[in-house]
């Protein structure tokens, strides 16, 4: 059985700025109003014969959206981003979050931004493709605490109506 949660209708949205270092048009800081669609496959189970409770799915996804909302998304594993205070091997999300401001360069352009205005992601890019995988994996972590009947979790991160990236995380076959 598959359940589907439509991000626009369920208000699973966030607005963030990002950049794709090295990309011709997306290499500049710009933003999107994202929405996130979710598909979950698994066996029906429990008192109500649900795959999962829609309320749980929306709560977990909304928490991720709220964390990213109105922030600059910075992928810390991108070789084209260099952080001023750190050697590349020393960069960590915790260290960056604990700084008052973060200074970094991308293609020779320097930025200094308050850390509280950023979300540092354990990703190579902040593309829809990478974000969809991030959402799916975070959602699986949350759902597995309560559900043991799931086969897969898919997240589609849409950068607007008509374009998004879907990642499917297989839990069991």
Characterise the protein shown here.
- This protein is an alpha+beta fold and 173 residues long.
- It has a domain at 2-73 and 124-170: 6-pyruvoyl tetrahydropterin synthase/QueD (Tetrahydropterin Synthase, Chain A), CATH 3.30.479.
- The protein has three helices and ten strands, in the order βββαββαβββαββ.
- The protein has helices at 54-68, 93-97, 128-143, and strands at 2-5, 13-18, 30-42, 72-75, 81-83, 101-106, 109-114, 118-121, 150-160, 163-170.
- Strands 1, 2, 3, 9 and 10 form a five-stranded antiparallel sheet that branches. A three-stranded antiparallel sheet has the order 5-6-7, with no helix packed on it. Strands 4-8 form a two-stranded parallel sheet.
- A hairpin with a 2-residue loop joins strand 6 (101-106) and strand 7.
- Helix 1 (54-68) packs across helix 3 (128-143).
- The protein is elongated.
- The chain starts with a strand and ends with a strand.
Summary of the model, kept short:
With 173 residues, the protein is α+β, with helices and mostly antiparallel strands.
Structural topology:
Layout: E1 2-5, E2 13-18, E3 30-42, H1 54-68, E4 72-75, E5 81-83, H2 93-97, E6 101-106, E7 109-114, E8 118-121, H3 128-143, E9 150-160, E10 163-170
Helix pairs in contact: 1-3
Primary descriptors:
173 residues, alpha+beta, Tetrahydropterin Synthase, Chain A, 5-stranded antiparallel β-sheet, 3-stranded antiparallel β-sheet, 3 helices, 21% helix
